[in-house]
Every structure is written in structure tokens, then in C-alpha cells.
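Entry 14. Ran structure prediction on the chain below.
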Amino acid sequence: MQRNYWPTAEWQAVDPATLRMDSEKLSELEPMIKSEYSNINGIVVVRNGYIAYEKYYNGYCLNDTHHMTSVTKSIISALIGIAIDAGYIKSIDQKVLDFFPEYVSDDESENRQKITIRHLLTMTAPYSFEDWHEPFDKLCTSPDWVKYTLDMLGQGGSIGTFKYSSAGAHLLSTIITRSTGKSAREFANEYLFKPIGMKKIPDYEMKSFGFEDLFGKNVNGWVKDPNGNSTGGWGLTLIPRDMARFGFLYLNHGIWDHNQIISGTWVDESTAPHSETCIDKSIAKYGYLWWLREEGVFAYLALGDGGNVICCIPEKDLVVAIASEFIINPRDRWTLIKERIIPAIID
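Output, C-alpha cells:
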């Protein structure tokens, strides 16, 4: 797809009408957000490569960072793809235990030996906890998060069955570090964030590992575990415009200003269905740490607790980035996108 410009240095905002979007319908977003999605702190809507709509709430402005929660996982997915392209990792079918020889015992279980990077990317590795009941407190209070996760890996189910795990995503971050010699934060700054104009992510000094240290408002940068590994399941902070940059990179098949940042093959594979689970009595499909939707249009989404979202809709040339305050059980952002933003597009 030909682009008139690339928002490496700065996004350009234009009249929605020039992007074939209905300004009146977009204007209905603000009162709805304030009344029904009040924990949204920032929203950026990008259509045809330009900002069509951008608003900030609750005292936030465009340069304020937000904790991305599990949106971090989709960033990790991109970094795995970049590391494979660069030859640091052989393939996603490489065994997880290959990267952690010091944790491997002589009587290693056959189940654990079979688990690959692919299983971590698709949430199809077994763990000892029930699905959606991952014990974060045990992970966060462990002196060695890798050992804690590997001790659970391969237990409590069969390989190939969906089981959502932030600890598994943390193993992927550690695999990036063991393969490249850089933390996920350092690797992302060099190979992903800088090339597309995202702000450099600073080192976040961890003083302890309580809730505020891991998820609090003062988190800035990228949280890391006691051994210095960037957290893989959460912990990255971004501004909404940079969230949109990341989504725009995927929307452009991994190309940014004529440079292939992520291979198009990886983008395709990451946003294709590889596993599925049942949420609220409906089937949810999953790619490589991306959620997939097929309701009138195909969309893939980086989703995080509290309502953090990067939503990409290729056929509409649309990216929606939403940064939110962490709350329990927020309203589904897909409903807002599906019912209010997509209908504003004039086909």
C-alpha cells in the first residue's frame, strides 16, 4: 500500500471527512466515553495513515504514558518474530528447554521436553493452574520467575489446549534475552521502537515487587523481574500515539517507510488463528499473542486488562489505540469500536 507520508517524526491529523469518516458520528464518542467508558484516558483513531480522532481524559495528555498491561504480550510477539528474522532464534518450533539448560533435570518429564516457543505464543502450553486463574502473587513473590514458571510448565493438562498465561509470555521475554544478549526492552528500543519513531523506553528501577511496583500509576518504562528480565506478560508503558504506531506497522505488513521491520510472513502468521478458547459463552480465536475478531470485518487486537487496546482492521485501513486506567471488569472496547467507530467510516 502506497503511503503519502510515514508518522516516524510526527503524526498528521486531518479533517475526518478527507479520510471518508463521519465527523458527527465521531463526535458522539466523547459523551459515550465519559458516561460508559470513564476509565479511558486516551484514544487515537488512525484512518488511511492519518489521525482522524484523538482525545484525552481524566487529566491525561498526549505525552503521558500508560501501563499497557497485556498489550505487552503482542510487543513480545513482534520481538520474537524480529529475533527469528535476524537469526537469533532458529524457529518457533525450537524447544523452550533449549534456552534454559541449567533448569533441566536428569529425570525431565516427556511433556515438558516437547513444549516449544510456538506453544508459548499460542497459549497452548499446559500449566498447573486452572485456566484464567493464574496465581500472579506466587510469580511476583518468587525470587526466580523463570524457575517458578518452568516448574509449572508441562503440568495440569495436555499440550495444545488453550490456557492463558502471563508467566509463559515472560519465558518468551527471557528467551529473547538469552538469544540476543539484550533485555526485551533494549532489543525493542533498537530493532522495533526506534525505527518507527516510538519513544525510547527507559530502564525502570525496581525497588520491590508489590502491586504498585508492577502495575501502579508511577510505573514508567518496562517492569523487570528480580533477575533483570523485562516482564513478558505486562509491564510496558506507552503513549497512545506510539500504540497507534505499533498497530500501523502491522497494518502495513511489517513495512515502515520502505523498510521491512518485521517480516510480512510473521505478521500474517501472528494474526492467523492458531488456538481458541471460550469467553462469555462465545469462541475467541488467538494468534501469536494477538486476539482475533471476525464480526462483519476481520480485526486483530492487542488486549490488556483495564481496557487497553490496539485494534487493527486491515480492510478499513484503520487502527484504534485506547489507553485505560486499570479497573476490574471494564466495558468491552470491541463494542465501542464495532458500534461507534467502524460505522463512522463512509464506504
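The two ends are 18 Å apart (CA to CA). Will compare against last week's run tomorrow.
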